[in-house]
Amino acid sequence: MRRKPNPDQRRRELCDTAIRLLADDGVKGVSHLKVDRKAGVPDGTTSFYFRTRSALLQAVAVRVSELDLKDLIAATRAQSPAGLTADEPSGLATLVMRTATGTRLIRTKARYELALQAGRDPLLDEALRSYGDRFRALIVDVVLRLQDKPDRALADRQAYVVMMFISGVMQAFASGDRSIRSAAELDALISGIVAGVGSSYALR
User: Fold this and answer.
1) CA-CA 20 to 30 A from 89: which of 50, 62, 120, 123?
2) Contact 33/43 with Cβ under 8 angstroms?
3) Closest CA to 59 of 22, 24, 103, 14
């Protein structure tokens, strides 16, 4: 007797299929029928689990954030207590470099497609925000480790600039640019940015 699929597992599988479609074809390339065909399930399966296209995209955003958070938690645990001067690269740099290849690159591309759509969809924006907040916390942690004397106000300013830089790096990865080749190289650039913003801040 054929076993019925586990509903939660089926939802995850459909969302993972939609992530691949987002990466390949953008938001306009995602529909219930296209997910069905890509996943190899009967027509109407995706619409059974996600009644509207908006509900599907929101579920995909939650799935992306769920997978991203697993990587982020691992990166946070791997963060060296000695900071970026240690022989090992920072958890942040390692996390970012991993987004350049494999399934994480697919997710990176999908995330940018969802982020563009989130500007017009508050529910989608909310689904993505939890990861953004945690990611920023990891950046602040790196910045504070680089400061001689911890200064939270300065760290917030430095973290903002570092986040914008990293967003650009990840967007470059999504478009095929591999100018930055290692976590150590990325750490060196982050250190330079933090030092530069710190110097500018001190002159005020």
Assistant:
1) 62
2) yes
3) 14
End-to-end CA distance of the chain: 74
**20: pLDDT strictly greater than 70:** yes
Which residue in the block uniquely carries the two structure tokens 């509207």? 52
Enclosing domain of residue 55: 5-200
Q: How far apart are CA 13 and CA 173, in angstroms?
A: 25
- Count how many residues are written for the chain: 204
- Report the domain count for the chain: 1
Of 53, 36, 190, 192, which is closest to residue 121 (Cα–Cα)? 53
Alpha-carbon distance of 156 to 137, in angstroms, equals 10
CATH of the domain at 13: 1.10.357.10
- Residues whose CB falls within 8 Å of the CB of residue 18, separated by 6 or more in sequence, listed in order: 30, 35, 56, 57, 60
Burial of 119 (0-12, 13-18, 19+ CB in 10 A): exposed
pLDDT the model gives residue 42: 95
pLDDT at residue 2, as a whole number: 55
* Across 113-122, average pLDDT: 90
Residue by residue, DSSP assigns 103-156 as: HHHHHHHHHHHHHHHHTT-HHHHHHHHHHHHHHHHHHHHHHHHH-SS--HHHHH
